[in-house]
Amino acid sequence: MISTSYQPISRRPIANAFRMTAHYAVRLCIRCNIHPDAVSYASIAASGLAGLCFWRASAHPWLLLAAPLFCYLRLWLNMLDGMVAMAANKASSRGEILNDLPDRISDVIIFVAVAHSGLCSPFSGYWAAIFALLTAYVGMLGQAVGVQREFSGIMSKPWRMVVLHIGVWITLFMLWSGRSSPVLGPITLMDATCLVVVAGCVQTIAIRLKRIFASLAAKGQRKAI
């Protein structure tokens, strides 16, 4: 039996304004007995729809309008699953795994689909996917070694989606303006977008490692006292 007194070890900081958008949905999920795991799986479906839009965007550019919206739906569902788990007293260690794993699957689906969109080099999209995974992995290392999980840095999950959104819609505007291949020098605008994500992830990884090492050092000093 899952303990109803379980408290997650770490929770991602989320703005209250964003949380408020899910209050009715939380009540609806509880009333309809929708399990938080189902919400987690739904976030993968939303990412799949975003990926489908990116994959077919070269042939149907209007899909770039919808793709970022599905990315934001993914983020919203990622938030909703935890809120439902807490409100319904269904939080568990198993749930923490199922809360995080869909996020990693979603990152891969989205950026690999961008890689095969025809709007950038496949290498750009794949490197963005790799660094998105590394960023999340480093954030979890702190929790794994007994200190806090890190959500710090400029390129956390929500900001990766924001950067992607900006690049996608600028690309769409340029395509509709008659430029068949928006470029910045030797690279396309979507290449540049993916490179911004990679650069931001490098900064985020460095910041998270610095904070984890500082926490470990502080923990060691407390034990020595």
Overview of the structural elements:
The chain is mainly alpha-helical and 225 residues long. It has one domain (16-224): Four Helix Bundle (Hemerythrin (Met), subunit A) (Up-down Bundle). Helices cover 72% and strands 2% of the residues. It has helices at residues 16-20, 23-31, 36-55, 63-87, 93-115, 122-144, 157-176, 189-224, and strands at residues 183-184, 187-188. It is flat. The N and C termini lie far apart (40 Å). The mean pLDDT is 88.
CATH fold topology: Four Helix Bundle (Hemerythrin (Met), subunit A)
The span between the termini is 40 Å
Tell me the CATH architecture: Up-down Bundle
Give the CATH superfamily.
CDP-alcohol phosphotransferase transmembrane (TM) domain
Strand percentage: under 5%
Work out the helix count: 8
Total number of domains: 1
Radius of gyration: 19 Å
The coarse silhouette is flat
DSSP strand count = 2
Summarize the structure.
It contains 8 helices and 2 strands; from the N terminus they run αααααααββα.
What does the secondary structure layout of this molecule look like, with pairings?
Elements: H1 16-20, H2 23-31, H3 36-55, H4 63-87, H5 93-115, H6 122-144, H7 157-176, E1 183-184, E2 187-188, H8 189-224
Helix pairs in contact: 2-4, 3-4, 3-5, 4-5, 4-7, 5-6, 6-8, 7-8
Index terms:
225 residues; mainly alpha; single chain; Four Helix Bundle (Hemerythrin (Met), subunit A)
